[in-house]
Every structure is written in structure tokens, then in C-alpha cells.
């Protein structure tokens, strides 16, 4: 910091919105000049507090003297750092640059805390003390997780090994950011422009309106197709021009690679190879056979090999069903002069098949689901199931009009907040996600910090001619991400490291989302949140049942796709051979894909789940495992009542509210009455076991 900055520091700190205690993050008050002073102030305050408490705790460690202050320190830093996650979606570029300048400082501090041998030793003393026998489940889980984290960081190993682990973790943090930056830049640079409406024949008017809006926002005429999955899938499903579909497919699946129209620009190939190598080195330094084995330390499965066994067992059951689904598509395509379906044909002929055989098109279904009607229906569902009230808060200054802040409460008691950021904007991240912006935590002074979650989607923005209309797939996606948010916000645990989604086994964190997806597939639920955007009518029973049957028509193919990706992920992180990531992926897909993709496809180069963080590394199978668990749990709702407040209350108490305080397998069995197996999922798919 400059001398001028240092002189102004007391005033900056006193007026800094990042350092205040706010129920809702005051995004509109945050300026670039607030960021560095706030981060440095919290880091220095934490280091001073740590230096004061460790000597005393080395003699007689206690929960109140050690574990709670450590978590208080962590939560204070998160309160300063986490606003960046939503600010970055709103193009506060100067603020984002200020955070970026502090990134190395924060990473160095976090690694120093994680690798602190004295902290680890005192935590061990506390765990071995007589008082630990009387700890409640929250205290036991928090202490156990803290010790596990330090062990995984190499604390307790030789100093040289610990330093090596620290260097690798620091390198990986930088590589994750590089991968994300490359992907964002490639997506922006690769957007396709069209000036001939005839070539866009078949594409729905609402989709064309969104593409025209994207063009205007970019200062262009005609139509612009950002390389964002919802719009890309819409074009691949609707465009009659086969050459155009192939053009879009090639552009999307060669992003950030050495192939395609942007060949060599923002290439993530070398980045992901180094990520995989660094992860393998990290596992070796920690004494694990592979990174997949290391990753199981924070997951439900005891052995990495059990994951591969699950995936292969499901592939064996699901692939024949997927082949049976595909056969009539090929027959239909042949009638239209396409003797061999290519990947860019599949969505298009699926849509044609559904229109011919089910009398349903996605466009007609969308007309009944404007986004506001879905939100209204969701509000009623939450109140019926969990007795949770949903209140939309007034918009804050400088907040995009499409972003809504929702307050959740129960019997007059506020539980937390959720930001709903559902629509595309220029430079907004593509995809769908949930981020925890704040954890539920009670500080040493008694102050209770309530949780805040952020749900992001990339649904088409409203246009003057069309409101945002959701497909059944969009509704499932939204329910999926909202399941994450509710898991985080409806927690009743008051210690941040094990509240909400924190401390939950990483391969169980998708379970609540999977259960909410099931509600999005129930006719009664869909009817309750339908309202035709022109007439206001609810969707008819017969039509919604046909629409759901149509959506389920290709479920085996969709599950096979996830199984393929999960198996590739597992093999990438469990084999130490000399093959490249691309070659390992091709080996798997050659045995599993129904329609082989072209050699130029580089889907791994955009696989953000695997390469922008560690949460899903060797863990993409979590999505499949969540479907297994969700089908098992939702069977109880089917037996006892879809809208049963008793079953909903049990689900909230056991699954949503418990955080990471109990083993998830135990919670699943308590709710469902039995251990989970694949039978319920296969039954849903109509596959005989």
C-alpha cells in the first residue's frame, strides 16, 4: 500500500462496508478502495489473535478458547472475500481487479493457517482430552474436520513434504484460475454472429429474440449466439439447417483448445494436463495411491475402486436402455435423408420424435412456464412441505433488475437469504450454479450470522416480445440449484465449518438437489406453477403428463452421458500411465458412447467442474450417486404423500438442517428406513434389475 493509503487507513476502515455487520451484504456500497484495506485488516487481526491464544491453548486447550476463535477468524475473512462472488457477476470491474490484486496474499495466509503445525498439535491435544468425550455432535464434527483438513495439508509429515504439498496447492489454485479465465475468454470470443434470418429457420421466436438482444448488447446487428449451453442446445434442437447445427456444435465443443475456429487461442489443454499432474504429485506426497484415493478422504465411499464398480455396474444396466432409445431416432432421421446420425443431429431428431409420437414440443410446453409463475409455485411448495415462508425483498441500488433477493423465514424467524440471478447478461458466467456467500455461524460474542446463498442460471432474458419461458429441463435445473441453496440456508447448525453445505461429504452434497429435481418431474407440482404467458391458464393434466412422458423418453441416454463423464473423471485421477487426458477420455467413450463424437471435440477443455477447483475432481460421479440416493429417498414421498408436511419436516430436519454434523449415510438411512441401492433409480428408468 502507498503512503497515502496508509495515512487514510483509519478512515477507510471505519467507513468500510466489508467490515460491518450487515444482515444482507451491502453490495451497492462496496468500492475498489475498500477491498485491500479490509482484507489486510482482517488478516492482521487474525494473526494477532492466533499469536495470543496459542501459548495458552498449548497448556490446556478448550473449545471456547481454540476451535470457536479459529472459526470466528475464518468467518471474518470469508465475510470480506465472498462478496466478490456476486460482484463479479455484476461487472464491478474495478472492485474485481482489487480482489485479484489481493489473491496471492489471501492464498498465502490461508495456506499458512492450514499448514500451521502448532494449531494442528493443539487440536490433537483437545481431541485427546477428557472434555472432548462430552462434546456434542456439532463440536465433534467440527474438531474432526479441522484435524482432517490439516492432515490432508501434510501437517504431521516431514517439513519438506509439507512444503511440497503447500507449493502444489498454491500452484493448483493459480491453475484453476487460469482454466476459468481461459474458458471465459474463449466463450466470449467464440460467439457466433448471423445476419441471414433464413439460415435460422426453425429456431423459436423467443430464442431468436434472445439472440437479437445479445447482438444489440454487443453493438451488432442481426443475431448473436453466445457459446452458452441453454441457447446452444436450443439451436441444436430447433435449427433446420444441418450445416448450421454442425457449425454451432463445432464452435461449442472446440472452445479453449487447439481445434476449431479459435484454434490455439486460450488453449486449456496444457493447463488441464498440468492440473492432473499436480494432483497426482499431491496424492503421492500425501502417501496415497492416486488422487482418486486421496479424494475419498472427504467422501462417502471408503475406497476409490468402489466408485468405479458403481459406475460400471450402472453402465452395464443403462447402456442397453440408451441404445433402445436411440434406435427409433435413427429410423426417423433416415426418413429425412440422414442415413447416419451425427452428434449435432441428435437433439434435433429427439425434438421431432417427441412432436410426432407424443404430440409435444418444447416450445408449446414453455408457453405455460413464465419464470415468475414458477417462482410463485415454488413459494407455495416450500410453505406446504417445510412451513417456510418466502418473501421477495426490495431491490438494492446498483443491483441488476433481473436479480432478486429472497428472505426465508419460519414462524416469523428469519433463517437466511437467497439471491436469484437467473438470466443471461453480457460477461455473466455461463451455466447454472449455487454459491455459499455466507455461512450460518454464532460468534464468540453471541452474534448469529445468518446464511446467504446465490443461485445463478443462464435462462434467456425477458424481451419486449417474450417473457422468459422455461422448459421442463430448465425447471429441473433451477430446482437442482435451489436444492443446494435450501440445503445451505435451512441449516440449524451454528458453527460455520459444519453448517449448511459445509462439512458435508462431497459426494453427498448433490443429494438435496437430486430430490428437488424429482419434485420438478411431478405433474401436480408442475400444474401448480404453470400459467400460460398469454392466457393465464394452467397446463392441462393430459398435456403435462404427455410432456413428462416425452421428457422421460430419453432419460437413459442422459444418464449414460453423466456416467461417461464420471468414468472419464475417475480414470483421469486414478491411472498414472503415459496417455494424455484426451486419450484417456477417448478410451472410455469409445466403449460407451452411442454416437461417437468427431475427433476434433475437446470437451475436457471446458470441463469447469473438474478443472476450476477441487470439489468435483475425481468426484463427478457425485451427480450419478446423487440420483441413486435421491430416487431412494423420494420413494418415501411417493409412498406417504408428495406434499406430506410430516415427510417434508423429516427431510428438512434430517437432510437439510443437519449440515456436516452426522455421516450422510446415517441420515439417508434414518429418513428412508433402509440403506441406499440402485434399484429405485433403475425402477424410475423402467430398467429391470
TrEMBL record:
GO process terms (BP): peptide metabolic process; proteolysis
Cofactor: record remark: Binds 1 zinc ion.
Pfam families xref list: Peptidase_M3, TOP_N
CDD domains, per database record: M3A_DCP (cd06456)
Domain Peptidase M3A/M3B catalytic: 236-683
Alphabetically ordered keywords of this record: Hydrolase, Metal-binding, Metalloprotease, Protease, Zinc
Cofactor: Zn(2+)
Record-annotated Oligopeptidase A N-terminal domain positions: 42-158
EC code(s) of this entry: 3.4.24.70
Gene3D superfamilies in alphabetical order: 1.10.1370.40, Collagenase (Catalytic Domain), Neurolysin, domain 3
Gene Ontology MF annotations: metal ion binding; metalloendopeptidase activity
Reaction catalysis annotation: Hydrolysis of oligopeptides, with broad specificity. Gly or Ala commonly occur as P1 or P1' residues, but more distant residues are also important, as is shown by the fact that Z-Gly-Pro-Gly-|-Gly-Pro-Ala is cleaved, but not Z-(Gly)(5)
Family: Belongs to the peptidase M3 family.
Name this polypeptide is given: oligopeptidase A
Organism: Pseudomonas baltica
Amino acid at each position: 500500500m502507498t503512503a497515502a493509503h496508509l495515512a487514510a487507513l483509519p478512515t477507510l476502515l471505519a467507513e468500510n462496508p466489508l467490515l460491518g455487520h450487515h444482515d444482507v451484504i451491502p453490495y451497492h456500497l462496496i468500492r475498489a478502495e475498500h477491498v485491500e484495506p479490509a482484507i489486510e485488516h482482517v488478516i492482521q487481526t487474525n494473526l494477532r489473535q492466533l499469536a495470543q491464544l496459542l501459548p495458552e491453548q498449548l497448556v490446556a486447550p478448550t473449545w471456547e478458547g481454540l476451535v470457536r476463535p479459529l472459526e470466528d477468524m475464518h468467518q471474518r475473512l470469508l465475510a470480506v472475500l465472498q462478496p466478490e462472488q456476486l460482484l463479479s457477476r455484476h461487472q464491478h470491474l474495478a472492485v474485481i481487479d482489487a480482489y485479484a490484486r489481493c489473491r496471492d496474499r489471501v492464498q498465502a495466509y490461508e495456506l499458512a493457517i492450514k499448514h500451521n503445525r502448532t494449531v494442528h498439535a493443539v487440536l490433537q491435544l483437545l481431541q485427546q482430552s477428557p472434555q472432548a468425550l462430552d462434546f456434542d455432535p456439532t463440536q465433534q464434527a467440527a474438531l474432526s474436520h479441522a484435524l482432517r483438513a490439516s492432515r490432508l495439508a501434510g501437517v504431521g509429515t516431514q517439513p519438506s513434504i509439507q512444503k511440497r504439498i503447500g507449493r502444489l496447492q498454491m500452484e493448483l489454485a493459480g491453475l484453476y484460475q487460469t482454466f476459468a479465465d481461459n474458458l471465459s475468454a474463449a466463450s466470449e470470443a467464440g460467439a457466433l454472429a448471423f445476419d441471414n434470418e433464413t439460415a435460422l429457420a426453425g429456431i423459436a421466436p423467443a430464442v431468436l429474440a434472445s439472440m437479437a438482444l445479445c447482438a444489440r448488447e454487443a453493438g451488432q446487428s442481426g443475431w448473436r449466439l453466445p457459446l452458452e449451453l441453454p441457447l446452444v442446445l436450443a439451436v441444436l434442437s430447433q435449427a433446420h439447417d444441418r450445416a448450421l447445427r454442425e457449425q454451432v456444435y463445432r464452435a461449442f465443443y472446440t472452445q479453449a483448445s487447439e481445434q476449431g475456429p479459435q484454434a490455439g487461442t486460450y488453449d486449456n489443454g496444457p493447463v488441464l494436463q498440468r492440473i492432473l499432474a499436480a494432483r497426482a504429485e499431491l496424492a503421492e506426497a500425501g502417501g496415497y495411491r492416486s488422487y482418486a484415493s486421496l479424494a475419498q478422504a472427504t467422501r462417502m465411499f471408503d475406497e476409490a475402486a468402489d466408485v468405479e464398480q458403481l459406475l460400471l455396474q450402472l453402465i452395464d444396466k443403462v447402456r442397453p436402455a440408451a441404445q433402445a432409445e436411440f434406435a427409433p431416432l435413427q429410423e426417423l432421421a433416415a426418413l429425412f435423408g440422414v442415413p447416419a446420425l451425427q452428434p449435432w443431429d441428435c437433439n434435433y431428431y429427439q425434438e421431432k420424435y417427441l412432436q410426432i409420437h407424443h404430440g409435444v414440443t418444447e416450445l408449446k410446453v414453455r408457453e405455460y412456464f413464465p419464470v415468475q409463475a414458477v417462482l410463485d409455485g415454488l413459494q407455495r411448495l416450500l410453505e406446504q412441505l417445510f412451513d417456510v415462508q418466502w418473501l421477495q425483498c426490495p431491490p438494492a441500488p446498483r443491483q441488476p433488475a433481473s436479480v432478486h433477493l429472497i428472505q426465508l423465514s419460519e414462524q416469523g424467524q428469519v433463517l437466511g437469504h437467497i439471491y436469484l440471478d437467473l438470466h443471461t447478461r453480457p460477461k455473466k458466467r455461463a451455466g447454472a450454479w449455487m454459491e455459499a456467500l455466507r455461512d450460518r455461524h454464532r460468534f464468540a460474542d453471541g452474534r448469529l450470522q445468518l446464511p446467504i446463498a446465490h443461485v445463478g442460471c443462464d435462462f434467456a432474458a425477458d424481451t419486449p416480445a417474450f417473457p422468459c419461458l422455461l422448459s421442463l429441463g430448465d425447471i429441473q435445473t433451477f430446482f437442482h440449484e435451489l436444492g443446494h441453496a435450501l440445503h445451505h440456508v435451512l441449516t440449524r447448525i451454528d458453527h460455520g465449518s459444519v453448517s449448511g453445505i459445509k462439512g458435508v461429504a462431497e459426494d453427498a452434497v448433490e443429494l438435496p438437489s437430486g430430490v428437488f429435481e424429482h419434485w420438478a418431474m411431478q405433474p401436480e407440482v408442475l400444474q401448480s406453477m404453470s400459467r400460460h404467458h398469454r392466457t393465464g391458464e394452467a397446463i392441462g393434466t393430459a398435456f403435462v403428463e404427455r410432456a413428462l412422458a416425452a421428457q422421460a423418453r430419453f432419460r437413459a441416454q442422459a444418464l449414460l452421458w453423466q456416467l461417461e463423464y464420471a468414468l472419464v473423471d475417475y480414470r483421469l485421477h486414478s491411472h498414472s500411465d503415459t496417455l494424455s487426458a484426451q486419450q484417456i477420455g477417448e478410451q472410455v467413450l469409445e466403449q460407451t458412447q452411442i454416437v461417437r463424437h468427431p475427433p476434433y471435440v475437446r470437451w475436457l477443455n471446458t470441463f469447469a467442474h473438474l478443472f476450476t477447483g477441487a470439489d468435483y475432481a475425481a468426484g463427478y460421479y457425485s451427480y450419478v450417486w446423487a440420483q441413486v440416493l435421491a430416487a431412494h429417498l423420494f420413494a418415501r414421498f411417493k409412498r406417504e404423500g408428495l406434499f406430506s408436511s410430516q415427510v417434508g419436516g423429516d427431510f428438512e430436519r434430517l437432510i437439510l438442517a443437519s449440515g456436516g454434523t452426522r455421516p450422510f449415510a446415517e441420515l439417508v438411512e434414518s429418513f428412508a428406513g433402509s440403506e441406499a441401492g440402485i434399484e429405485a433409480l433403475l425402477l424410475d428408468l423402467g430398467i429391470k434389475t
